[in-house]
Design goal:
662 residues; alpha/beta; 6-stranded parallel sheet; 29 strands; binds adenosine-5'-diphosphate; binds zinc ion
C-alpha cells in the first residue's frame, strides 16, 4: 500500500494510544514497513501505520532515521492490532509489542539461515474411525469457505488431535499457513513429536522461552510465509502471518489462554477475532468446552462436531465417589482407606495411578497452636505455603520466602507451628508411609517447570519407572499414559467454595480432564473422587456423567445473575502502596462512573477490595461493570476513562472479560 505524502504516521511499541508523525526525505515507505525513528532521546523501531496527520509544523517534525531492510508486515496484522487494542482497551503502542516483543528479533543477522521445513500433508495419515472421519471431513470442508468457528467437542481420549491434524493437512495442501495454539508450552514436547511424525517435519515453535536467535529465525520465517505450520502459546497469535489459512485452539476451555499481565487478553477470543478478520476457519478443541463456546454453539454462531467415543477399544472410566464424612481419618491424613486399597491393588497389578490435588507444596497453611497466628505474606493477602523439599515457607504470588521457622514469629512459642491441610508433597509423604514400595513422582509447576523436565517425567511414566504420579492441574493437560488406570482426587471440593462465578465450570472441567487421564488404552479406568459434598451439583454431574445437565444448570444460573456468557464484564482495578489513598481514589472514580453510566443500562458493582486485595505490597480495589452482551462495553469504558483523571501515583488496570474473582 503506497503512501503519497512525505509525512507518515508511525506506531511505536511504547505505552501510548496513538501514532507519531515523521517526515521522510527519500522514497516513501509502504504501510507496514519497519522504520527506525528518533523518539525522545532514543531511537525506536516502529511500523509505518498510515499518512501523517499534517498537524505538526514543518520546522518541528523529525525525520525518520532509516527504513529497515525487511518486508512490511501484512495489512491484516495492522487491522488485528487495531481491533484487539480496541476490544481489550489496550494502548495501541503496547499492543504492537505483541507483534515483535523485542526489536532485536526483527533485524536479520548475516549468518542467519532459517531452516525451511518441508511438510508432507500425506506423510503418515492415521486410519480414522467413523466418528473421527466424519468430524475431520466437516473440518476439511470448511478449509476454503471463509470465516467459520467450529467446536471440536470430543471426550478425553477420542483422538481430537488426529482429527484436527486432518484440517491442518488440508491447509498445508492449500499452501497456507496453519497455527496451532496450545494453552501452555510445558505440555507440548509430546505433541510436537506426534505432529512431526504426522507431517514429516517439526512445526515452527513460538513461545516466550525461545532464545533470541530462535525467535529471530522463526519470526522471519513466519513473516516471509515460509513457516507453514506454527505451534505456539497465545503470543504466537500476533505474529505477522501473511497467509494464515487456519487456526486451531487446542483445549480451548483452558484458563491459561487468558493473559493476566501487562496486556490483558484472552488468547482464544483474540484467535476468533483474528480468524474473523482473516476470513479463515478456526477450530476450538476440547472435551470440556467453555460455557462461552457452548452458548455460541447453541445460538448457532459456532458450528460443532462431536466425538462421543474414545478411540479404539478404550472405554470411558468408571467414576465413584468416596464420601469422606463416612470415614474417620486423623486430621493429618488425606488418603482414605478405599482409595488406599485401590492404590494397593493397582500397584500389585503393575498398573499406574495418579493422585490429584490442586495444591503445590506441603501445606497451604501454617498455624501457631499457641497464639492462633496464621503465617501470611507481608506483601500479599495470602498465606505462606510450606515447601518441605526446600525447607521454606513461600508466597505463591510474589518472591517472598523464608526458611521454615521453628518458633512462631508472633508469640515466639517454640514447636507450636502446625501444618494445616495437604499439598502434593504431603500426599507423597503419606503415601510413602502407607505404601513404601510404590515409586512416586510429583508433577507440579514448581518442580516441572520446563518442557524438558516435563518430557523427562512423561518418559519415566511411559517407561513404567513410576507407579504413582502425584500432582496438580498440570497433570490434566492432555497426557496419554496407556498403563494409567486409577485416578484419585484427594479433595474434589477444593475449587467450589468462595464467590467466584466460574468456580463450578472450572471445577467441572478440571475433574473431567483429570478423570480423562484414566484408562485410555486396553484396561478400563477408575476414578475415585474424595468429597465431603457428594450432593453438590458439580460432583454429582461428574459422578453420573451428566455433562449436558450440568451445562444447562450452570447456563441458567449465569443467565439469572446476568453473568457471562450472557452479559459482559469489565473490571477497573486501582492499585497503589497506600491503602487509604487507593480507597479515596476508587470512591471518586465510582462516583464519576455512576454519573457517566446513568440511563445506559450498565450496572456497577463495588468498589470493593479486588481479588488479592494486597499483592506485592500494593493495595488493590476494584469496580466491576456489567452490561448485556449487545452493549458496546469496551468503547463505553474507554470513553469513560478518557473523561477522567486518575492520580499518577495510582496504577489503573482494565480487564475486559475478567477471569479472576478469588
Ligand atoms: P484427545 O486429545 O481427544 O484426548 P488424543 O488425540 O490424545 O485424544 O488421542 C488419544 C490416543 O489415541 C493417542 O495416543 C492417539 O495417538 C490415539 N489415536 C487416536 N486416534 C487414532 C487413530 N485414528 N489412529 C491411531 N491412533 C489414534
Ligand atoms: Zn507475597
Amino acid at each position: 500500500m503506497t503512501l503519497k505524502n512525505q509525512q507518515i504516521s508511525v506506531l511505536l511499541p511504547v505505552p501510548f494510544d496513538k501514532t507519531f508523525d515523521y517526515e521522510v526525505s527519500g522514497q516513501i515507505p509502504d504501510i507496514g514497513t519497519f522504520v527506525e525513528v528518533p523518539f525522545g532521546s532514543r531511537s525506536v523501531i516502529g511500523v509505518v501505520w498510515g499518512e501523517g496527520s499534517n498537524t505538526i509544523e514543518k520546522s518541528k517534525i523529525k525525520q525518520i532515521n532509516r527504513i529497515l531492510p525487511i518486508q512490511p508486515i501484512p495489512k491484516i496484522s495492522i487491522e488485528f492490532i487495531e481491533r484487539m487494542a480496541e476490544y481489550t482497551i489496550t494502548r495501541k503502542g503496547l499492543a504492537l509489542k505483541l507483534l515483535f516483543g523485542n526489536a532485536k528479533i526483527i533485524e536479520p543477522k548475516k549468518k542467519d539461515a532459517p531452516e525451511i521445513n518441508h511438510y508432507n500433508p500425506n506423510f503418515s495419515v492415521p486410519n480414522l474411525n467413523e466418528e473421527q472421519r466424519n468430524a475431520a471431513d466437516l473440518l476439511i470442508a470448511n478449509a476454503d469457505k471463509g470465516f467459520s468457528v467450529t467446536l471440536l467437542d470430543g471426550v478425553t481420549g477420542s483422538g481430537k488431535t488426529e482429527v484436527f491434524c486432518e484440517a491442518i493437512a488440508e491447509c498445508l495442501r492449500l499452501k497456507k499457513q496453519a497455527l496451532l495454539l496450545v494453552p501452555e508450552i510445558a505440555m507440548t514436547a509430546a505433541l510436537i513429536n506426534r505432529l512431526t511424525n504426522r507431517f514429516s517435519a517439526p512445526p515452527v515453535v513460538w513461545h516466550s522461552g525461545l532464545t533470541e536467535k530462535q525467535k529471530r529465525l522463526n519470526w522471519r520465517a513466519i513473516l516471509s510465509g515460509e513457516a507453514l505450520f506454527v505451534i505456539g502459546a497465545r503470543s504466537a497469535l500476533f505474529l505477522p502471518y501473511p497467509n494464515l489459512g487456519l487456526i486451531i485452539a487446542d483445549e480451548e476451555h483452558e484458563q491459561s489462554y487468558k493473559q493476566e499481565e501487562m496486556i490483558l487478553y484472552h488468547g482464544r477470543d483474540m484467535a476468533v477475532l483474528r480468524a474473523n478478520i482473516g476470513k479463515i476457519p478456526i477450530v476450538l478443541s476440547s472435551a470440556t468446552p467453555s460455557l462461552e463456546t457452548v452458548l455460541n454453539v447453541r445460538t448457532n454462531k459456532y458450528n460443532t462436531v462431536q466425538i462421543q467415543q474414545r478411540f479404539g477399544t478404550a472405554l470411558m472410566p468408571e467414576v465413584g465417589l468416596i464420601d469422606l464424612r463416612k470415614h474417620t481419618m486423623p486430621a493429618s491424613e488425606f488418603i482414605s482407606p478405599p482409595l488406599l486399597d485401590a492404590l494397593k491393588k493397582n500397584l500389585s497389578e503393575q498398573k499406574q495411578s495418579m493422585l490429584f490435588l490442586n495444591r503445590r507444596g506441603y501445606a497451604p497453611l501454617t498455624l501457631c497452636r499457641g497464639c492462633g497466628a496464621r503465617l501470611s505474606c507481608p506483601h500479599c493477602s495470602a498465606w505462606l505455603i510450606a515447601h518441605k523439599s526446600s525447607n521454606k515457607l513461600r508466597c505463591h504470588h510474589c518472591d517472598y520466602n523464608i526458611v521454615l521457622p521453628k518458633i512462631c514469629p508472633e508469640c515466639k512459642a517454640e514447636d507450636k507451628l502446625a501444618a494445616c491441610g495437604p499439598g502434593v508433597e504431603r500426599i507423597a509423604e503419606e503415601l510413602y508411609a502407607k505404601l513404601p514400595s510404590a515409586r512416586t513422582a510429583i508433577m507440579a509447576s514448581d518442580v516441572i517447570n520446563t518442557p524438558a523436565a516435563a518430557q523427562e517425567l512423561v518418559d519415566k511414566v511411559l517407561n513404567k519407572e513410576i507407579d504413582v504420579l502425584i500432582g496438580t492441574q498440570i497433570m490434566a493437560k492432555g497426557y496419554h499414559f496407556p498403563s494409567l488406570t486409577l485416578v484419585g482426587v484427594i479433595d474434589s471440593d477444593i475449587g467450589l467454595s468462595g464467590g467466584d462465578p466460574r468456580a463450578s465450570e472450572r471445577t467441572f472441567a478440571l475433574l473431567q480432564q483429570i478423570s480423562g487421564r484414566s484408562g485410555r488404552a486396553m484396561d478400563k479406568g477408575t476414578v475415585m473422587l474424595q468429597t465431603v459434598a457428594p450432593e453438590n451439583p458439580v460432583i454429582n454431574a461428574i459422578a453420573k456423567n451428566l455433562k449436558n445437565d450440568f451445562i444447562d444448570l450452570e447456563l441458567q444460573e449465569r443467565q439469572s445473575y446476568n453473568l457471562p456468557p450472557f452479559w459482559r464484564l469489565i473490571s477497573i482495578t486501582l492499585s497503589c502502596k497506600q491503602e487509604d489513598f487507593v480507597i479515596q481514589e476508587i470512591n471518586q472514580l465510582a462516583l464519576k462512573l455512576n454519573r457517566f453510566s446513568k440511563n445506559t443500562g450498565v450496572r456497577i458493582l463495588g468498589p470493593a477490595p479486588a481479588p488479592f486485595s494486597k499483592l506485592r505490597g500494593n493495595y488493590r480495589h476494584r469496580l466491576l461493570l456489567q452490561a448485556p452482551k449487545a452493549f458496546a462495553l469496551s468503547s463505553f469504558v474507554k470513553h469513560f476513562l478518557n473523561s477522567v483523571q486518575v492520580s499518577p501515583r495510582i496504577k489503573l488496570i482494565v480487564d475486559v472479560d475478567p477471569y479472576n474473582f478469588l
